Amino acid sequence: MAAQEILDGLKAAVIEGEEEDAASFAEQAIDAGLKPMDIIKGAINVAMDVVGQDFEDGNAFLPELILAGDAARAALDIIVPTISADDLDGAVQGTVVIGTIFGDAHDIGKNIVSAILAAHGIKVVDLGINVPAKKYIEAALAEDAKIIAISSLITTSLPYHREVINTLTDRGEREKFFVIVGGGPVTPEWTAQIGADGYGRDARDAAVVVQELLQGLAAGEHAPLAEPITVGVLGQG
Amino acid sequence: MTTTTRFTQLLATNDVLVADGGMGTLLFERGLEVGGCPELLNVERPDIVAGIHKDYVESGADIILTNTFGGTRARLTHYDLDSRVTELNAAGADLARSVSDGAGRSVAVAGSMGPTGELFVPLGPLDSDRALELFAEQASALADSGVDILWIETMSSLDELDAAFTAASVFDLPVVTTMSFDTHGKTMMGVAPGDLASWAESKDRPPIAVGANCGIGPEDVVAAVQAIVASDSDAVPIAKANCGLPVFVEGELDYPLRPQEMRSYAESAAQSGARIIGACCGSTPRHISAIRSFVTA
Lengths: 237, 297
Hints:
The complex is a heterodimer. Helix content of chain A is 55%, strand content 11%. By secondary structure, chain A is α/β, with parallel strands linked by helices. Chain A has a six-stranded parallel beta sheet with strand order 2-1-3-4-5-6, sandwiched between helices. In chain A, α9 links the parallel β4 and β5 (198-200). The relative contact order of chain A is 0.12. Chain B is an alpha/beta fold. Helices cover 43% and strands 15% of the residues of chain B. In chain B, the strands form two sheets. In chain B, strands 1-10-7-6-5-4-3-2 form an eight-stranded parallel beta sheet. Chain B has a two-stranded antiparallel sheet with strand order 8-9. Chain B is globular. The two termini of chain B are 33 Å apart. The model of chain B has no long low-confidence stretch (mean pLDDT 94). Classes of the chains: A alpha/beta, B alpha/beta. The interface between A and B is medium-sized, with 29 and 25 residues.
């Protein structure tokens, strides 16, 4: 099978949420000698963008998004271990520690963000739900992550976003980590108010924020940013 | 045939019934701590829960929903309260029952059943057997404690709704089902209001009423009512809208819609065919008073 056919097959399998097919095309792509980053960029990212756009337009819903995320993950499980250190240096890569904040047990949005970040070749460490400030920070230190991503659905969990930032500041570690926030009640205003570094309205926006932060990091920027990066406008879409 | 209860009598003798408003928002205002279990207040702070029911009854609600939205074992497990499912649901029903009994007029007690928070296969671990088991346990506690109706709400998946309905239908009580159409007019799982109406019609013993709750705000809830009526002209539609999406005003979270705006929403909902009108997140007894003033006028 020609390289492009394999990539097209992988893209279609991810869009359709066919986990086994996605894994099989990923193996074929590696066997055919395609570069891991080319497979990720040329098939998986494109596929997730298609599904993300369909979701935004109201042509796809959560099931399609989750199944596509699962298929992308299955393919990435095969592709990522083959990435060489040289490739890693050449690509914008990084680790994100993510979790639903303390006081909140909703994990669907956080799971979607995880899937989409993973589909963009970013290592995601998922801490689950009801995550206290300290746990984010310790995991970020242990994993050498540069970004802490906080998810919320219920409004009453919002004050704990600030606690993550305050705890980092108190420990003298605020400069080590970019903190990004998102979820139903979170707004760009809130993001700026608590001094976080980024906000994405939906999962695709979150991926854009993470990529921008990683690019900034590579260019020598560090937390906290004077103004947060905000992508997506609340109330649209 | 469903047994006659306070609820069915009210429905038979009124064009429009007023349901209550949000419970969670008020629980937080009155003492629920962040990270705390709302249902635990049924035994630890019954005064707060009963006080909210009382305020809604005084503001004119014909139906009050028990503080048992997250009362399935699946949700209580998050708080290590999985051994207290029956106790917390029964306590919730008892509190609403006692407020209703002291109301001096007929007020129906609806046993609230919300989603388990788990996703159905193939998206998540929940299968229909387990879902049925979870909802049966909750429904049984509510039914045994004398609710007038089982009220399945805020659902987004038809599989989960079906499991909850099947579990609730075992009891000789009327059952209603509402979904949250918050994603381009459908639920986040892609269920349209018309799909809900068709699902209900397919049942030998359908839910007594179906409708929309929570979501983005009144507009989507009214649109859902219209779609339900278009799909089944015999439907008894329910509208229970949020007071809009919360926004930040001077650093404080605020739901934008005021009582007068919720009165206008009630008017649109009634014109669209809604027979049961209440509110959801962000609403207070003042909003329900405003809805009552329209219904009574």
